[in-house]
Specification:
Helices cover about 15% and strands about 45% of the residues. The chain is an alpha+beta fold and about 120 residues long. Strands 1-2-4-5-6-3 form a six-stranded antiparallel sheet. A hairpin with a 2-residue loop joins strand 1 and strand 2. The protein starts with 10 loop residues before the first helix and ends in a 5-residue tail after the last strand.
């Protein structure tokens, strides 16, 4: 299955797709020093959210998908050098709305979860 959206995304900042199926994506991100906010190597939450958002967008996989809303929870901190894996699953569709559940794991440990509402537009914004 080909990725139909977010063609110019920076994979080093938002993750690399590992698996893509109809209504599902798995995206991996290796966190780097560019993402750090302090001397302890804590990764800024914006990069974690960016991974989740990208996974949701390609789970919908429409050329004109945009994010409308997100209800998210940051569960555990992530540090530089860790690889995290986002799993996004489209749970339902209502007209132009697509509801996507995303969780991010570090090994067997959940670090993030969210419910995303995406909109599929007839043409680009």
């Amino acid at each position: 299955m080909d990725i139909q959206t977010h063609q110019r995304i920076d994979a080093d900042l938002c993750g690399r797709p590992v698996r893509l199926e109809d209504g599902f994506s798995l995206v991996s991100l290796l966190t780097t020093p560019r993402m750090s906010v302090d001397a302890l190597g804590l990764v800024h939450g914006g990069f974690i959210f960016g991974l989740a958002d990208y996974a949701a967008m390609i789970a919908v996989n429409h050329p004109h998908v945009v994010l409308g809303a997100a209800d998210v929870k940051f569960i555990k901190p992530v540090r530089v050098g860790e690889t995290i894996l986002a799993e996004a699953r489209q749970t339902r569709a209502e007209g132009k709305k697509r509801f996507v559940s995303v969780q991010i794991m570090r090994d067997e440990e959940k670090v993030f979860e969210g419910a995303f509402v995406c909109f599929v537009l007839k043409q680009g914004p």
